[in-house]
Structures are given as C-alpha cells and as structure tokens.
Amino acid sequence: MVIDDFFNGFGGSYVAEILRRPIEELKIAFEALVDDAEFDKDLLQLQQDFVGRPTPLLFAEHATRELSGPPIYIKLEGYAHTGAHKINNALGQVLLAKRMGKRRIIAETGAGQHGIATAAACARLGMECVVYMGAVDVMRQQPNVAGMELYGAKVVPVYSGAQTLKDAINEAMRDWAANFQDTHYLIGSALGPAPFPHIVRTFQSVIGRELREQLTRRSIEAGTLVACVGGGSNAIGFFSSFLDDTSVRLIGAEAGGMGPSIGQHAVRMSSEDASEGIIHGYKSRFLVDSDGQVSATHSISAGLDYPGIGPQLAALGVSGRIEYTSASDIEALEAVRFFARNEGVLFALESAHAGAVAMRLARESSPDERPIVINMSGRGEKDLFITSPYFRREEWERFLASELHMVQKREEFK
C-alpha cells in the first residue's frame, strides 16, 4: 500500500523539520504493516476479545413510530469497550507503535473518549501512556479523567489558549518533537499531517465494513447514513464502505452550539466563518477570526469543540458526496432524552448531534422511504455531569450542595 498525502488538495504534511523524520518513519511502517497478515490477525483477535466487536445494529422501533418517518437503525458503536468508537483506532495505533519498537504513547483528547481508549489499549499492550487534555475539558469530563488514571495513564492538563482540544494537540506535538525516538503520537481523529488521516480511517473502517455486512445479512437497503463530525474519525469510519455507493446519502452533523456568531459554534463546512488553511500540520477548512487566527469555538460536546475538520471529510464535502448540516446544543440534549426514553439507549452528546439531525430528517420524510442509520459513536454515561443540570436541575443543585457540605465536614474533622 502506498499512501497519497492529499485528498483533492486537502491534507498534506506541513510540519516542522524536526518532525519530518518521525512522520516518514511512521508512513513507511504503516504502509508495510497494513498489508501484513500477522498484524491483521493480531488486530482482529484484539477487536473480538478485547473490544467486543462486532457492535450491534439496533432497529429503533419506538423512535421510528414516534417520528412517523422511515425506519431508523442505530449502529451501537458506543457498546465497544471503553464506551466509544475511539478504541478501534487507539488499539490499532498502539499495536503499530509496539511493532515499531516504541515504548511510550502520547495522545490528545477532548471529550476524554480517545484518552480513555488510548490508556486502556496501552494497559493491555504494556505501553507507557501520557494524555494531554485542555484544562476546560478536564473539568467537564472528570469521569473520563478518572478512568484514564485508573488505566495507568498520566493526564496532563493544558492551560494555554482556550484550554480545549486544539491546545491539547499543540502540547502533544511539542512532546513528540522532543521525544520521537521512543514515542509515538497517537492522534485520535482523522486529521493532522499525513499519514495520520489514512491511519485513523483504516482502523475506523471496521465500523463501515460491519455495517455493510449487517445490512446485507438482514436485507436492508439503507437510504441515509448520519454521523456527527468533529475531527471526523467516527464519520469517515462509518461512511467508508459507502463512499462509492451514491444511492446512499451521507450526512455529517456538526456542532451548531449556541448560535451562528463566531465563537458560539464549531461549524466548518457550512459556515461563513470557516475558510481553507493550514493548521496542525494539514490543509483543511478551519474556523478563523477576522485576523486569520484560529477562532474560539463552542459545543456542549467536548469532542466536537474543534476548529477544523479532517481533510478527507473536507474534500468529500466540497465535492458534494457528504452533505453537512448542524444541530444546536439544545437539539442535541433533546435527542439524548428522546432516544433514552424511546429506545433505552443513552447517546453521548457528540453522537446526539447525529441523532438530532436524524430526527429532523425522519420528520421531513415519508415512512416508505429507505431507512436512516445513525452512528451512535459513544455512550452518554460520561456526560451525566453535563446533562444533569439540564434534565434535573433542582436535584442536581441539592446533590452538589450536599457534596460540598460533606467536604466541609471532612475538612473540619481533620
């Protein structure tokens, strides 16, 4: 396998001179191992025994009836070990790094799912793990921080910039530049300098392959696939087996946040605030301010709170193969509640953006149209500290007051 660094002009590898050697080393190793039968065998065994693949495809019977539209199916990717699709890529890259002779893994994380997946994969394969995480995300994703630490990872809060995902990426890049001899940087989304978008897509494509097989086995002809899009790892994996099948609509759901003004959302493909540029080592579409600097972004979901989008997804959007739309914070919260009450499935806030768009499509479509399939890329237990103030505000306030009271009592006892 030989990798092309670009997707119709997007992508590339725009890195400092010090990173050219590890980038080239990684590219050579990946091109060799991706066609290695022994590597594929080891990865498949881990996917089955450690991750729990294949993940289920659920017919959302009650949601379909409530929305009065086409049949809705949910690919329950959140049922994979560690609670999200992130484990697919993390496990593949840790195994790749181990074959390369590396001993240390570094990663960035936003919502924490990539961090916890990386920490678990490192624990399983015996690798040292350091995770960089924006200080804002550390505060709002404490359950995942606790999980990473339990798996033995060192979580490093990043206090520079907006203290979110883009700043965590910057710090991880600095670490890699200083320690690449024994360290592999495990990028969590389908972005960054080549060959990372190819690597992440390859390891996430298991989602699309499984979905295609599950639909065929049940004689289902999907009409529309919907996935949330931050950097884009779940989306490109979900869409991968359907890119050449133009009878299937592919829809990416971005974070509409609180509103249309710059700094209130993270909409890259259908926003006047976004433009083409080169950031974090690759060319794509990014949200920038009037001075051309990376803009502040907002999403209730930490995993979608990123100013750029993966280069292949940008190219597919420009070509029209993928349609992009957005869902607001409120719509995502409504989708969390809707699917929880109607299907007993708790969507992560990231995935709930796809759920919200699917709900909108279903209401606008007739029941005899071909099915809609949603990628539930992650489970929502990690977000209970965020969603509880919206869904049960009074009870949440009493809980926090009680916890603070107990802390004070313990301090007095000391």
Classify the helix fraction into a percent range: 40-55%
Q: Helix and strand succession?
A: EEHHEHEHEHEHHEHEHHEHEEEHEHHEHH
Radius of gyration: 21 Å
**Domains, number:** 2
Strand percentage, roughly? 15-25%
Quick one: how many beta strands?
Answer: 14
Instruction: Determine the N-to-C terminus distance.
Output: 63 Å
Helix- and strand-based class?
A: alpha/beta
CATH class category name of the largest domain? Alpha Beta
Helix count, per DSSP? 16
CATH topology of the largest domain: Rossmann fold
Principal-axes shape call = globular
Largest sheet: 6 strands, mixed
List low-confidence stretches. Answer: none
Please identify, by name, the CATH architecture of the largest domain.
Answer: 3-Layer(aba) Sandwich
Mean pLDDT: 94
- Provide the spatial order of strands within the biggest beta sheet: 3-4-14-9-10-13
Please characterize this protein's 3D structure:
Strands 3-4-14-9-10-13 form a six-stranded mixed sheet, with helices on both faces. A four-stranded parallel sheet has the order 7-6-5-8, sandwiched between helices. Helix content is 47%, strand content 17%. By secondary structure, the chain is of the alpha/beta class. The protein has two domains: 153 residues, Rossmann fold, CATH 3.40.50.1100; 213 residues, Rossmann fold, CATH 3.40.50. The radius of gyration is 21 Å and the shape is globular. Helix 3 crosses helix 13 and helix 5 packs parallel to helix 7. The protein contains 16 helices and 14 strands.
